């Protein structure tokens, strides 16, 4: 039985272990943390995940979706909270058959590990911190956090799924001609909490992603299975950028309390632990990682956040990593045993697309925090929706291409740009959708866009 | 006497040690390599340096220029070698008072070390490979390459001048919110050699930077003190990009010989050791590094290539690093003892400018290998020269702003872009400078550009 070593038992590593077991490999998964199913992992730094079509497809391919569906809550659209407490629902898809799914990172990871454990050929090794590698010797080095022993593990074929701060990638930096960038946003985030009602019911609409867009900052909330919401506040680090909406300014309980009273009064009412959460939870950073190549000979490949971490504003980080698994698996099918070809084909299929979703995710931060409350943006959304109805194979909204389809992200990015310029041209100097000249619109669409092939 | 530790005794570290000694600090300089003045350092991977106004000014500030001038050869312009052997001289400045200087990296480094050694407060520690740092403990870690001992050095104030592959920067990567990118060109380079005549004289024009521009690749040659030229061939790595002009293709003596016969026949005649050099010397990589922040509290700052390595095509890498020394020194003068302020002010003064020269250097590769042989480019150069004469305070050529002035690189980049668009507009559909409407040109220049303040 051919062996594969996976470094990192996060979402990508756990799912990949199932893919590899199904392909007939003996899989060893090394993970820095203790087994999160037994030990409580320090929380307070998670943004709930939005599982959508790409991730769902990756789960279905190995028969795991039915189990994951049980811990997912459908979100059919955005619920926009104005400062005066008025809410407005913006549907994500064409109808309720198109939705994204709120799922807890911890619950999903544990469930994936349980499902992987059902394969006798998958073995998890916890508390093993990766300290480096020597590809000439085919060796990986781990430090056992429990016994303090240092371990060398022989591995001919390794896949690194060790996340945005990947230790394996630190080793790749020493290899000539390795392109790499890591870019932090000037914004950080703080996890907050809305508990359920006493009867266990939700305090707000369950099946929506709640957004309090405030221009240069925002609060979001995603539903949990227990009736609570996990909220995330995104604000600037520095006062010079964010003014009072900054971690630098918000350094006392009074300031935080006043800030929420002023900006999120409806949320404040249902956040009894706001001040404890704000000062108890760590401040999360938002990073975009790009790198290339993702592999070294047929010996090592990176997958998921380790080679392409993105900001969370399109809800695609996990979905993109899960999609990596589909493509890597396909490359193994197409070139069995030829790991050099497998890894090369895999990285070539994925690189342009993960670059594209990185850019899309950064763009979407502006849309979420600002544009969703802008009249022209809302008019453009209406025009977009109408164009989608009139030209369902040609003018597919960017959000739909990214979230509800499996077309390459780079196609979504490119067509999204063209569509944005069309919407911008059509909405110019217009105040209502009734003023649109649909004959001119049709001419423009047909000139700029070919039907989408998929 | 306050202590400063410098990591890296390359060009930047050696010059900085003099600046710091003159400021009254006790300076310890740790260097991975042996003392290059005693041991032969493996060569064959150096592009000759082009010392220009910024670097010269930095040397003059600490009284070192007279000594360096002695090992420098003025280059007044580019000597363009056509494929048919015809040469054409393009002057760099307005007259022979504006020139750049060819200087050997090794000779310059040794001379700077000698000059630093004249200060009793400067101490070099050779064969000490930096293994990391612990800023909480104010400790740097070195491995002694001779004794194999591991050494911890206490240091309250450290400046890292440890080059493009900086080990200190690898440690910075572990610090939250450190932005970093390293980007390799798809081109590599090979050092080659043109020996002097038997009487020690030069085989080509001495006071020029020789270029054989061939569109997608090029050869350059810079004069040495001994009558020889150091040549550098820049070609693509991969055949898919460069065709026959690629390291991938050029894998036999015959292919290299044929390639030079076809593309550089005049150079080939005076390169007796071409094949030995081509296959004996390593292939150099071309990297652009950007990072930020450059400092941690008042404890550590990076300077030179360690935080902003650039490609060599504007001849500004060393000049930019030397300019860093001027600014850091000025910040020390302005906030004595306040290292947090010193390092913060220094990085804020420099970051936008080193980003700008990185971009300028990448742009200039296209100019050097391709445009210098293009008729429209040559017409634009003529118009530029005439506009410079007519508006000497306003329309200053980009090359002049970068090379012969000390205005901020970012100003040179921004004005260079505006000027390029003016030149492009004026040269449109023109075949000769006689067709230019200078009244219209004046209107355009005055509309787009304010006089340069410096």
Q: What does this entry look like structurally?
A:
2 copies of one chain form a homodimer. Chain A has 454 residues and is an alpha/beta fold. The first copy, chain A, has 3 domains: 3-73 and 102-181 and 286-364, FAD/NAD(P)-binding domain, CATH 3.50.50; 184-285, 2-Layer Sandwich (D-Amino Acid Oxidase, Chain A, domain 2), CATH 3.30.9; 374-448, no CATH class. Chain A has 16 helices and 19 strands. Chain A has helices at 11-22, 53-61, 65-69, 105-117, 167-172, 239-242, 253-263, 265-268, 274-280, 305-308, 317-334, 339-369, 375-390, 398-403, 409-427, 438-448; strands at residues 3-7, 26-30, 49-51, 73-75, 77-81, 87-91, 100-103, 122-125, 128-134, 139-144, 150-154, 158-160, 179-194, 209-213, 218-223, 229-236, 283-292, 295-296, 300-302. The first copy, chain A, has a 7-stranded mixed sheet. The A-B interface holds A 170, 173, 176-184, 237, 285 and B 170, 173, 176-184, 237, 285.
């Amino acid at each position: 039985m051919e062996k594969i070593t996976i470094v990192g038992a996060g979402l990508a590593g756990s799912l990949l272990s199932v893919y590899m077991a199904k392909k007939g490999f003996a899989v060893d998964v090394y993970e820095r943390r203790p087994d999160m199913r037994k030990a409580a992992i320090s929380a307070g730094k998670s943004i709930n995940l939005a599982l959508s079509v790409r991730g769902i497809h990756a789960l279905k391919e190995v028969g795991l979706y039915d189990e994951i569906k049980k811990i997912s809550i459908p979100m059919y659209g955005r619920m926009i909270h104005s400062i005066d407490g008025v809410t407005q629902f913006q549907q994500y898809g064409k109808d309720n058959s198109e939705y994204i799914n709120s799922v807890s990172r911890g619950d999903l990871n544990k469930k994936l590990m349980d499902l992987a454990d059902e394969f006798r050929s998958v073995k998890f090794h916890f508390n093993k911190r990766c300290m480096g590698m020597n590809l000439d010797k085919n060796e990986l080095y781990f430090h056992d956090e429990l016994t303090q022993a240092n371990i060398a593990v022989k591995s001919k074929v390794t896949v690194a799924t060790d996340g945005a701060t990947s230790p394996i990638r630190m080793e790749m930096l020493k290899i000539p001609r390795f392109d790499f960038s890591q870019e932090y946003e000037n914004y950080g985030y703080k996890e907050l909490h809305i508990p359920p009602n006493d009867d266990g019911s939700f305090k707000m609409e369950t099946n929506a992603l709640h957004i309090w867009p405030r221009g240069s900052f925002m609060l979001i909330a995603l539903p949990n299975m227990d009736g609570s919401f996990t909220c995330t506040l995104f604000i600037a680090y520095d006062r010079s950028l964010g003014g009072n909406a900054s971690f630098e300014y918000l350094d006392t309980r009074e300031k935080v309390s006043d800030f929420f009273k002023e900006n999120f009064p409806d949320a404040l009412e249902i956040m009894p632990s706001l001040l404890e959460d704000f000062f108890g939870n760590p401040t999360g950073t938002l990073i975009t990682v790009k790198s290339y190549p993702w592999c070294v000979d047929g010996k090592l490949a990176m997958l998921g956040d380790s080679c392409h971490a993105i900001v969370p504003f399109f809800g695609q980080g996990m979905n993109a990593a899960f999609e990596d698994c589909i493509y890597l698996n396909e490359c193994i099918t197409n070139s069995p045993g030829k790991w050099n070809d497998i890894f090369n084909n895999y990285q070539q299929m994925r690189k342009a697309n993960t670059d594209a979703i990185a850019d899309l995710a950064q763009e979407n931060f502006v849309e979420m925090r600002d544009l969703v409350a802008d009249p022209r943006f809302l008019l453009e959304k209406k025009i977009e929706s109408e164009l989608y109805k009139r030209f369902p194979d040609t003018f597919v909204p960017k959000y739909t291409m990214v979230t509800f389809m499996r077309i390459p992200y780079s196609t979504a990015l490119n067509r999204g740009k063209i569509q944005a310029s069309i919407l911008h041209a059509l909405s110019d100097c217009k105040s209502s959708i009734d003023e649109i000249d649909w004959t001119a619109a049709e001419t423009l669409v047909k000139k700029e866009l070919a039907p989408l092939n998929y």
